[in-house]
Amino acid sequence: MPEAGRPKLLHEGRPRELRELPWRGKFSRRELTRAPHRSAERLTCSTDEVRMDGPSDDLSQGEEIPPGEPDAMRVVRDVVFAMMDTKARPVQRVEHASTAGVVRAAFEVAPDLPAELRHGVFREPRVYPALVRYSNAANQDQSSKDTHGMAIKLFDVPGEKVLPDERHATTQDFLLVDCPVFFIRNAPDYAVFAPKLLAAFRLTQGPFIRRLPAFVGQLLQFGYLFFTYLATHFHEARILGALRKRPPKSPLDTEYFSSTPYRLGPHAVKWLVRPQAVNAPPPLQPSNDPELQKRANCLRAALVSQLKQEDAAFDFCVQLQANPESTPVEDPTVAWDEAISPPIRLGTLRIPAQEFDTPAKRKLALGLSFDPWHSLPEHRPLGGINRVRREVYVAISDKRRELNNATIREPDLTWLQDIWDQATG
Question: What's the predicted TM-score (pTM) here?
Fold first, then answer.
């Protein structure tokens, strides 16, 4: 039993099978944690030198700005714009465009959190209405190897938010994937990789290549990236390999990680979400929907089938930064070892059995934007990769809404109850 006053660790009082749930990567978290850190000149900025827009939102928790970051962020943003298909209607997301489903949920804050963890949405025990999106990062074919995402949007969250244009929004987003690390260290490194990615992407956009099986285009892209970038960037190549994972049996049957750090009040942290059930999902129910019978929609079919039969629940956990060397803020290619920073449960995400896969809800889901910067200052994203996301996500989201003639920005509780919940057709 944990001592009085000490935060309860995730593994305490839990079944042995879940305590030993492995991370299904191509190499261990310990290997990732020990990954070499390339030396680079850095500029350490005080809060007087750099400020982010938003209330009480300054550079902190060991953040550092490498030389050339602003220009590098614009390079990445322009590459993502160039990869957007602006002719299609509706205009899809560039990343995580293949959605297995967006489902209704309830986010329960644990009642027994110690004072040092009671910040932001975790300040007091309560239940937040939520939507959760499950998605593939890159491939439309859900049966292919890919990174798999889980994005959580809480509603009815009081307090001013970080983004100036959404200061009075009432949502809080948490974005996670099924790998504990990101494959690029910082914005300057990303600016070197991004043009190679764009060139690889354009190789597969010709009409002849697009008529071939999807794996042919994937092989072409990988081959180009290997000879132009990965062959000389072994550390990044290993992580990219681990990010290409076989699909889980169900999106509800795997664990997810924030991979980049965030604030929890005065702490630098990473988020971790683990399924409570240790057994396999129930048998897949056959569907009369031709779309759900396609192998390319296997995760969507699994999610539909499982939520017709049972509820699901996840533990929402946090890892606290132990020290700047082993749990760095500015290098998301390093996993935070759970032996050094054990996960602590902050709450429970409950997903009731439901029918969510309707044309009306799929249309509404296309208008949703999930962004780590949809956030209270107490949960502000940290580190260079998250600063890149701020530049990219906001610009891309605004452009998609403009091209799709979508007027709503961040939805609120009234939208959730009157529009989403009533969209049954």
Answer: 0.84
